[in-house]
Amino acid sequence: MTAEYLWYIPNQTEPGHRGDDNTRPDHNSLDTLTEQARALEDHGWKGALIGTTWGRPDTFTVATALAARTTTFEPLIAVRPGYWRPANFAAAAATLDHLTGGRVRVNIVSGKDSLAAYGDADAEQADRYARTTEFIQLIRRLWTEEQVTFHGEHFSVTDSTVAPRITPREGRPHPPIYFGGASEAAERTAAAEADVQLFWGEPLDGVRERIERLRGLEASLGRRHAPLQFGLRVTTFVRDTTDQAWADAEAKVAQMAAQQGALTQDAHRRAAVGQQRLLDLAGRGEVLDDNLYTTPGRFGGGGAGTTWLVGSPQDVAKSLRRYADLGVTHFVLSDTPYLDEIRRQGDQLLPLLRG
């Protein structure tokens, strides 16, 4: 399968996300975000993940606005069961998919958030992933069937038909469903129901192990869909030369250490199994494989900012190809300043990966 390369649009109310130097008052305006989305189109990217947490601008609204101002840009829209009801989301996504000619992608997020702030209830991990499983099952059915009746533990619909109908395209019966999570419950959900399992920037041996385990789960759970695909969400720290990349990366981490001191992270994220796996990597060494830099996680780097692939375009392309050799076909990359790196990595890194 041909690999696909997406970026990340931060969608933050506060400027300076992960060291981004765009601190203008309009840093999150429609014009500024559109500039990033159009730069992605111009520099070879398929689209971008738009993240979600309570306290950010609404992700679906931002994705819709950017889709309306672009031609080929594909938003990977992060959504949470509980924030959305499945029938409401299925209808909204089907409408946007229709209006954009099939450009919608969906990333289901099950990690904890400020749930009570938007009327959701906290739940044990097993219950959260059971609800996510139902959410995915139901939106998939609503996109591909008519007069759907579904009565689950968490969601129910009766004689539900979403309009407009999703237009199937070659290899794409409906918007692809991405999903993350490293716990046992999360992996069972992914193996049974997701289209793409996203990994954080773990070393190759960890990704290999997880792919093998997920393949085994697919078989044991009797997966009914096309085979699960795999994606990598990671920071790519690229400079013209290897030496310059490492000098700049170490300087940036030193700045993070001076500004933030010891690790301070969102308690919800830190409690996540996948995040803890990343933080534990620092105990194995500052640099794993050829160029996976683990030190950022000690000084506030979280999620995709916990580990960085550092090097020249050739170094980073080589590392990403090694993940591709394991079976990873979806890459969601990023670094700051976001707009500058869209252009730099689009012009210097993507041609090497595609070549």
Shape designation: globular
Rg from Cα: 20 Å
Q: Residue share in helices?
A: 40-55%
Quaternary status of these chains?
single chain
N- and C-termini, Cα separation: 15 Å
Concise summary:
The chain is an alpha/beta fold. It has helices at residues 30-42, 59-68, 86-99, 125-144, 184-193, 204-221, 242-260, 267-271, 273-280, 313-326, 338-348, 350-354; strands at residues 4-9, 47-50, 74-79, 105-108, 148-151, 156-160, 177-180, 196-199, 229-238, 287-288, 292-293, 308-311, 328-334.
How would you portray this structure in words?
Strands 1-2-3-4-7-8-9-13 form an 8-stranded parallel barrel, surrounded by 6 helices. A two-stranded antiparallel ribbon has the order 5-6. α1 runs parallel beside α11, α3 crosses α4 and α5 packs across α6. The two termini are 15 Å apart. With 355 residues, the protein is an alpha/beta fold. It is globular and about 60 Å long. Helix content is 41%, strand content 17%.
SSE map:
Layout: E1 4-9, H1 30-42, E2 47-50, H2 59-68, E3 74-79, H3 86-99, E4 105-108, H4 125-144, E5 148-151, E6 156-160, E7 177-180, H5 184-193, E8 196-199, H6 204-221, E9 229-238, H7 242-260, H8 267-271, H9 273-280, E10 287-288, E11 292-293, E12 308-311, H10 313-326, E13 328-334, H11 338-348, H12 350-354
Parallel strand pairs: 1-2, 1-13, 2-3, 3-4, 4-7, 7-8, 8-9, 9-12, 9-13
Antiparallel strand pairs: 5-6, 10-11, 11-12
Helix pairs in contact: 1-11, 3-4, 4-5, 5-6
